[in-house]
Amino acid sequence: MNRIVMLVVALLALYVGVPMVVGHDLYLMSLVVASLTIAGIALAWALLGNLGGMVSFGHAAFFGVGSYLSALLTLKAGWPVFPAMLAGGLGAVIASLAMLPALRLKGPYFALAILAYAQIFRILATELSGITGGSSGLSSIPGLPTVFGFDFGTKTGGYLVILTLVLIFAAAYYFLRRSYVGLALRAMHESEDATRVVGVNSAFLKTCMLMLSALMTGIVGAFNAHTINFLEPDYAFSATWAVVPIIAAIFGGYRTIIGPLAGAVVVYLVDQLVLKSILPTGHQIVLGVLLVAMIIVSPAGLTALKFKKRTRRDAYAAS
After folding, report:
1. Is 184 within the bounds of a domain?
2. What whole-number distance in Å separates Cα of residue 319 and Cα of residue 310?
3. How far apart are CA 319 and CA 316, in angstroms?
4. Per mean pLDDT, which range of 11-15, 70-74, 209-213, 292-296 is the poorest?
5. Bridge partners for 150 per DSSP
6. Do residues 36 and 163 make contact, with C-beta atoms less than 8 angstroms apart?
7. Contact criterion met (CB below 8 Å) for 250 and 237
8. How far is CA 234 from the centre of its chain?
9. Nearest 10 degrees: Cα torsion 54, 57, 58, 62
10. Is residue 5 a part of any domain in this protein?
């Protein structure tokens, strides 16, 4: 019962409290939206790494494909924005199918192979100028629509959309981890050969995790395209969409659900509001130093550090 009350309070704080407190400050609200965009990718990356057991450096491929497909469907085919965003996610899923040969690889070899795919998609977006606009990109991408009188194209509206998407992703991650599929995936981490002997199709499960991670990232990419209203290949397929979410997930604790979300918000807001004001250039170096320090102090991330402090406090009180 206490968990339900805490969940309701947290949802009210997120859906009502944040817009009331921050909604009047358009700059700060735009930073919150950007941090949640990073959080969505970080959660997708953590799902693939934690449940799928695959470390990826190429989520920019899914982000870019989702961005471009949704933008093109609204610009050239006249699709409504929200269905186009879902189609963008499905397009990222289709793009992930091209990466299936890489599933035969493990460890850093898989990570580098996925990174290569991201570069391939960036080159394709640049060369197919008749469709994507090439290096000039796409402009005047339709923004988020007005539904039942509420304008989702505002900063507050965009915040509510990306918050809802991230919470849906987190809920899917939660129930998947607690399911029989999640149990099979965790068993695969211990011994993939042993799980294969008892009838677990490890290749199929890895494929499903890759596709789900791609779907989540593609939808986030589509949302971002309709928020900034402009796309070009170097931006849509930028390594930033792979590196920053990885930093956020590891900083927060990628083996938990709340970790990547908290890590993304903390890392991005601290970087933009604090470090950038102190060091206008080179502020990301400090971010790297903080990440290294976190890995040394608490390899499991920020959330694990908090849990350790609580455990020590409880043990001290019990003594």
Report:
1. yes
2. 14
3. 5
4. 292-296
5. 147
6. yes
7. no
8. 19
9. 70
10. no
Give the 3-state DSSP-derived string for the chain, with helices as H, strands as E and coil as C: CHHHHHHHHHHHHHHHHHHHHHCCCHHHHHHHHHHHHHHHHHHHHHHHHHCCCCCCCCHHHHHHHHHHHHHHHHHHCCCCHHHHHHHHHHHHHHHHHCCHHHHHCCCHHHHHHHHHHHHHHHHHHHHCHHHHCHHHCEECCCCCCEECCEECCCHHHHHHHHHHHHHHHHHHHHHHHHCHHHHHHHHHHHCHHHHHHCCCCHHHHHHHHHHHHHHHHHHHHHHHHHHHCEECHHHHCCCHHHHHHHHHHHHHCCCCCHHHHHHHHHHHHHHHHHHHHHCCCCHHHHHHHHHHHHHHHCCCCHHHHHHHHHHHHHHHHHC
Tokens matching residue 56: 């990826």
| pLDDT in the model for residue 275 | 78
Tell me if 219 sits within 8 A of 50, measured CB to CB: no
Domain membership of residue 6 (yes or no) is no
Residue 253 has pLDDT above 80, yes or no: yes
Per the CB < 8 A criterion, the answer to whether 68 and 224 are in contact is: no
> Distances from the Cα of 216 to the Cαs of 45, 153, 211, in angstroms?
9, 21, 9
Token duo for residue 155: 């900063």
The pLDDT-based confidence of 217 (bands split at 50, 70, 90) is: very high
The two tokens of residue 119 are: 């570069």
10 assigned to some structural domain: no
Question: pLDDT band at 318, cuts 50/70/90?
Answer: very low
CATH of the domain at 272: 1.10.3470
List residues bridging with 139 in a β-sheet: 230
Question: Where on the phi/psi map is residue 282: left (φ > 0), alpha (ψ -120 to 50), or beta?
Answer: left
CA 192/CA 33 separation, integer angstroms: 39
Q: Which domain holds residue 115?
A: 24-318
Q: Structurally, how many domains does the chain consist of?
A: 1
User: 């090439």: which residue's tokens?
Assistant: 134
Q: What's the predicted TM-score (pTM) here?
A: 0.90
CB of 263 closer than 8 Å to CB of 250: yes
Closest CA to 70 of 185, 254, 222, 292: 222
